[in-house]
Amino acid sequence: MRWTVIGCSGSFPGPANACSSYLVEHDGFRLLIDIGNGALGALQNFCDPRDVDAVVVSHLHGDHWLDLVPLAYARPHHPDGRVPPSLPVLLPDPQPLYVLTGKDAAALRPVFDVRPIVDGEVGPFSVTFIPTVHPVNTYAMRIRVGGISIGYTADTAWSDRLAPFFSGVDLLVAEATFPARENGPPGLHLTAVEAAELANRSGAGRLLLTHIPPWLDPQVQYADAVATFTGRVDLARPGWSVRLD
Ligand SMILES: [Zn+2]
Fold first, then answer.
1. What Gene3D superfamilies does the database record attribute to this sequence (predicted)?
2. Which of 60, 108, 116, 138 could make an SS bond with 103 (beta carbons 3.0 to 4.6 A apart)?
């Protein structure tokens, strides 16, 4: 399974970094996890958006889903005329998508096959979900194929339910939106130290620190995580990619 960072900027895009979006590939199947604002452009550095096979959206904050709207137009409209099959899209709530695309469920169906977030198979992947602590309905997820598992926190404040859910993942992709030495508003996000502590308690093989907002120094977040997590820590950036077998 390969995990590639398409964009990883928290809250709003940076000058050279789209908001959250990750491409997960195995055996030629392309699963896109989140598609925040700016991600559709960045995705084209890695594949034709028509070759994405499924999308999972963790929650309906703009930095995780807004580029579904232009994707609804990009999929069927391309100069070479190739129209891909309907794209399965797992969403916590489809209503904002209908409003922003101006299409109801029936009109959108040729482009998107909108489905609820439920545990199950997505292509070759087995995907399970757990609600996080965030102001809107948000799901962390665990993606498995063969003996390999990757966990993704989505957006969340600290929750004791997360470490058991991520137990033994080979890679934990954890958000680190707040600086370690600053108390942000409650119920929103993790600090880098909390992300690293979550990786420790999960027994994660390695940690990818992500969702760092443009106004923070990522190296400070990285240093805080390295000082806490006992395993390898990487800092997400566009194009960062790892293959786990
Ligand atoms: Zn976010």
1. Ribonuclease Z/Hydroxyacylglutathione hydrolase-like
2. 108
Tokens at 94, concatenated: 């489809």
Q: Looking at residues 47-63, what average pLDDT do you find?
A: 97
- Cα-based distances in Å from 176 to 13, 28, 197, 221: 15, 30, 11, 7
Question: How close is the Cα of 79 to the center of ligand 1, in Å?
Answer: 33
Residue 155 Cα, ligand 1 centroid: separation in angstroms? 6
Q: How much is the pLDDT for 78?
A: 83
- Contact, 26 vs 242, CB < 8 A? no
Nearest C-alpha neighbor of 30 from the set 45, 57, 52: 52
What's the rounded Cα separation, in Å, for the pair 157 and 223?
A: 20
Domain architecture of the chain: domains with CATH: 2-243 (3.60.15.10)
Q: Which residues contact 80 (CB under 8 A, 6 or more apart)?
A: none
Measured CA to CA, the distance from residue 169 to residue 96 in angstroms comes to: 33
Find the 139 Cα to ligand 1 centroid distance in Å.
12
Q: Tokens at residue 149, please?
A: 């598992």
Q: What is the CA radius of gyration of the chain?
A: 17
CA of 1 to the centre of ligand 1 (A): 24
With tokens 């997400």, the residue in question is 236
Q: Which residues contact 203 (CB under 8 A, 6 or more apart)?
A: 167, 168
